């Protein structure tokens, strides 16, 4: 593995640890109710709706945090197996600058862009439909 020096790797480990602690701190408070049940008796409809919105946002945030924690865990396991910092698509070293911005990145910038623009199923479906339309003269 040539891409990352030991120093760079250490920096990224520290960065991921800090990120994980930050997420855990925020996710921990998101789990507990903001208002105690006994204080909720005199809410009018608007307030109830607000509360539901907050709840929904909280759920979305929690999912987001869990995803981030899973990404961090996956990155750590790649570190253990010596595959960290190597693009899973083209097997090239991912630039340190990119890893600093996204310590959990699995792909180099080029492959990530390709991956995001590909949208596998949707693209295939569109292609199939286009082919079907072309090959069936009506
Ligand atoms: Zn790549």
Model description:
It comes from Cupriavidus necator. Pfam families: zf-dskA_traR. The chain is mainly alpha-helical and 138 residues long. The model has no long low-confidence stretch (mean pLDDT 82). The chain has a single domain (6-107), classed as Four Helix Bundle (Hemerythrin (Met), subunit A) (Up-down Bundle), CATH 1.20.120. The termini are far apart. It has helices at residues 6-31, 45-80, 96-101, 109-118, 120-135. 11% of the residues are buried. Helix 1 runs antiparallel to helix 2 (45-80). The protein is flat and about 65 Å long. It has five helices and no strands. Bound molecules: zinc ion (ZN). Zinc ion binds next to helix 4.
Number of helices: 5
- Helix/strand order, N-terminal first: HHHHH
Rg computed from alpha carbons, rounded to a whole number of angstroms:
22 Å
For the secondary structure, the number of strands is 0
CATH level-1 class: Mainly Alpha
Helix/strand class: mainly alpha
Bound small molecules, by name, code or SMILES, are: zinc ion
State the CATH architecture: Up-down Bundle
N-to-C CA distance: 57 Å
Q: How many separate structural domains?
A: 1
Domain Zinc finger DksA/TraR C4-type: 82-117
Protein name: Conjugal transfer protein TraR
Keywords: Metal-binding, Zinc, Zinc-finger
GO molecular function: zinc ion binding
Give a brief rundown of this model.
With 138 residues, this protein is mainly α. It has five helices and no strands.
């Amino acid at each position: 593995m040539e891409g990352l020096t030991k120093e760079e790797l250490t920096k990224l480990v520290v960065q991921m640890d800090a990120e994980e602690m930050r997420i855990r701190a925020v996710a921990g408070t998101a789990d507990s109710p903001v208002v105690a049940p006994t204080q909720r008796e005199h809410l009018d409809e608007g307030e109830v709706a607000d509360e539901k919105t907050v709840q929904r946002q909280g759920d979305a945030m929690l999912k987001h945090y869990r995803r981030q924690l899973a990404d961090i865990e996956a990155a750590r396991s790649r570190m253990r197996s010596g595959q960290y910092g190597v693009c899973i698509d083209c097997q090239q070293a991912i630039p340190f600058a990119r890893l600093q911005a996204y310590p959990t990145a699995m792909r180099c910038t080029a492959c990530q862009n390709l991956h995001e623009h590909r949208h596998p199923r949707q693209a295939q479906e569109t292609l199939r439909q286009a082919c079907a339309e072309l090959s069936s003269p009506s």
